[in-house]
Amino acid sequence: MKNELARRLGALVVATLLLALVPLATSDYALHIAIQILLWGFVYTAWSLMGKFGLVSLGHGAFLGIGAYASPLLWNYAGLTPWLGIPIGILAAMLLALIIGYPCFRLRVVGHYFALVTLALSQVALLTIVAARDITGGSLGMTPKAVGHSWYALQFPEKPYFYAIALAVWVFGILIWHFVDIGKGRAALDAIAEDEGAAAAIGVDVMREKLRVTLASAALTAFGGALLSQYFMYVNPDTLSGIGVSLQIVFAAIAGGMYSALGPTAGGLFTIALPEILRVTMGTNFVGAANTIYGALLVIFIIFMPRGVIGLIESRLAAAPARKISKEPAA
Amino acid sequence: MAADQNGQRSLGEGAMLTLCNISAGYGSFRALFDVSLEVGAGEAIGVVGPNGAGKSTLMRVISGMLRASSGELVFEGRPLTHVPAHRIVEAGIAHVPEHRRLFARLTVEENLRIGAFLPQARRHYVERSEWVYALFPRLLERRRQLAGTLSGGEQQMVAIGRALMSKPKLLLMDEPSAGLAPLVVDQVFDLVRRIREEGYTVLIVEQNLQQVLDVVDRAYLLEVGRIRLSGLSAELKKNPAIRKAYIGL
Ligand SMILES: Nc1ncnc2c1ncn2[C@@H]1O[C@H](COP(=O)(O)OP(=O)(O)OP(=O)(O)O)[C@@H](O)[C@H]1O
Ligand SMILES: [Mg+2]
Hints:
The complex is a heterodimer of chains A (331) and B (249).
Chain A: H1 2-20, H2 22-25, H3 28-51, H4 60-78, H5 82-106, H6 111-131, H7 133-136, H8 159-182, H9 185-194, H10 196-201, H11 206-232, H12 237-240, H13 242-256, H14 263-282, H15 289-304, H16 308-319
Helix pairs in contact in A: 1-8, 3-8, 3-11, 3-13, 3-14, 4-5, 4-6, 4-11, 4-13, 5-11, 8-11, 13-14, 13-15, 13-16
Chain B: E1 15-26, E2 29-40, E3 44-48, H1 55-62, E4 70-75, E5 78-79, H2 85-91, E6 93-96, H3 108-115, H4 119-123, H5 125-135, H6 137-141, H7 152-164, E7 170-174, H8 182-197, E8 201-206, H9 209-215, E9 218-223, E10 226-232, H10 233-238, H11 240-247
Parallel strand pairs in B: 3-8, 3-9, 6-7, 7-8
Antiparallel strand pairs in B: 1-2, 1-4, 4-5, 9-10
The complex binds adenosine-5'-triphosphate and magnesium ion.
């Protein structure tokens, strides 16, 4: 357990140092893409905390939206710094997660039904944002009042600043992922995913474990949403909330591989690169193309590559030295 | 201590587990009607009865998986009637559920590890797992195998082993012999005997009346949610009504 932790931390430190050098060598455009990959990768990682234990949420668009809107709204209307606005948005997302999660878990809403309840949640969030157009700008979106380079307003026109923030936050997300993966809650969540009743019979507090991971996932997602809106200096309900975004999150985490630490980030590579490529090659003719492609690919991934791209690579690597019949033992 | 057979004690006194007028059901359907029973420390008690009698329901009420609609449940002098399942495990009751309900896609070892989920059990994980492997050497050979791929008998061993990992004082077993070949059924009952000898208190539900009465000290006969009869195993074995209806002699 200790060795495993050291090995994982070592790998992360090396990766971080390498990534920290990126701004020295690349253009603003490359940094722009890299920042998005890191921030979305962080959001996808947050989703996979739940997803890999069978808690498939289609409601993360709502958590993301709350995080994305809270700090610009508080900044524009109350002059509150994002240093407070972001935590408030995170708390609001956690509260919403609790309001949805508690009854779902109490009533044993699991599997497809859980996905459906959360799906409704993300649409309600979208409709609420649009309906409150007087303050949110409706479907046109809104812009936080710009003040130029400012730590207080968390606004940085220069890309390297945001790159550093995105990298730090992404590393934090990966750490949390590892923490959950080797922590003692892991066994409980695995057991719950397999058979909730049997887990409870063994002494697992099913409600507590599920709520914990759900609240953590919602909080991190809202955090990611807040940073995305700070970075873009623009929020729009379609890109940061609603069903489309929820699907994008699910797709990226599954395609990249939600059982691997870097899987969701690999998914980010894909969901950021794909629309970019479509935009460059087809212009604005196919605005909805990305979502259609996600949907089709998701089906293919679930059938042929359920552990995602990174999961596939890992199992190839693991299988090379010694073919194992049974599953690898837990560390 | 052995309980006296006429059950003349006041509630909870002396007995390890006492159920007093427990009723329970699912929605508007009532599956148990005023069930009372006692289990003394060190005893092995059987609950027998036909399909649908409410035996599994009774076990679920004791382990907190199902809430009793009325009545009292006392374990070691502590009322446990409205205590959630994980606290009941903490109190020292482990449940080997009907149909085993293993974590099929986890290995044998992972199943046992989850059995020792509670902090006090986790601290003794190594000793406990050694002890379980000593009890079931077969599981040691198979410890990296996925539980879902084990044979029925082996799965039953994992189910029992997993429950024992929490170092319970009272072990609830719901039809451990169900679905097993006669030879394996004999092994399961041998196991129950050995677990008894290790000093565990056991409450076991069985359809296999003949064999269970050889293992337990006393038994209760449950029919359509009510206790019809109870007594020492030796007496029940001689009871003509039981012989006729359940043993087929
Ligand atoms: N989850 C449930 N929802 C509704 N009714 C249930 C449920 N579980 C059991 N019942 C009903 O409660 C009654 C008692 O069921 P229970 O499982 O306790 O019987 P049993 O004595 O264990 O039977 P068996 O020997 O077949 O396992 C049955 O009539 C059954 O249909
Ligand atoms: Mg039953």
